[in-house]
């Protein structure tokens, strides 16, 4: 079968090469395209490009190896691509996105944690507190919740967070 004056195998091959180039470009410049995902969240560019790549690869192989009708090959290729795309999403993309979020902290998650004063906190001023956790250390500006002086090296309890500044009080260890 021919389409646009070219054999269908050639079209599949050109589509495979073009989608492969687009995937490589997306790897390098994908951060600029992240805003597009906000407008239509169901159109993940990775899944869309992978679907086109899988469809063209399966269609090319089916055209070479079988004597089926080209439309049947396209439908079989699309079905294979849908299955592979679903597996890619479920077993690769979803776990990667949740792993990425597990390293992030929110201001609300800091409440109730214990930190160490790095820079002394004066009575009416700001100091700095270091909070240690499994993924590393976080250093945040701090002020005294009770408006008292807190010396360097003291353990403090984070009571509240206000505009990125944590409010702390001395932590009494039992």
UniProtKB/TrEMBL annotation:
Segments forming domain Membrane protein NfeD2 N-terminal transmembrane: 1-101
Cross-referenced Pfam families: NfeD_TM
InterPro entries listed in its UniProt record: NA-bd_OB-fold, NfeD2_TM
Key word Transit peptide present: no
Annotated transmembrane regions: 12-30, 42-62, 74-94
Gene3D superfamilies reported in the protein's UniProt record: Nucleic acid-binding proteins
Keywords: Membrane, Transmembrane, Transmembrane helix
Name of the protein in its database record: Membrane protein NfeD2 N-terminal transmembrane domain-containing protein
Source organism of the structure: Cytobacillus oceanisediminis
């Amino acid at each position: 079968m021919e389409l646009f004056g070219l054999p269908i195998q050639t079209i599949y091959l050109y589509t495979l090469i073009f989608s492969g180039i687009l995937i490589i470009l997306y790897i390098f410049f994908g951060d600029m395209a992240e805003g597009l995902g906000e407008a239509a969240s169901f159109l993940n560019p990775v899944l869309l490009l992978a679907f086109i790549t899988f469809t063209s690869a399966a269609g090319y192989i089916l055209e070479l190896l079988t004597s089926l009708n080209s439309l049947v090959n396209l439908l079989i290729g699309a079905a294979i691509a849908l299955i592979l795309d679903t597996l890619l999403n479920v077993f690769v993309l979803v776990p990667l996105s949740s792993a990425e979020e597990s390293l992030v902290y929110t201001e609300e998650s800091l409440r109730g944690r214990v930190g160490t004063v790095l820079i002394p906190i004066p009575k009416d001023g700001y100091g700095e507190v270091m909070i240690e956790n499994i993924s590393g250390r976080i250093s945040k500006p701090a002020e005294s919740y009770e408006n008292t002086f807190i010396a360097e090296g003291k353990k403090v309890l984070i009571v509240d967070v206000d505009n990125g500044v944590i409010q702390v009080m001395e932590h009494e260890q039992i």
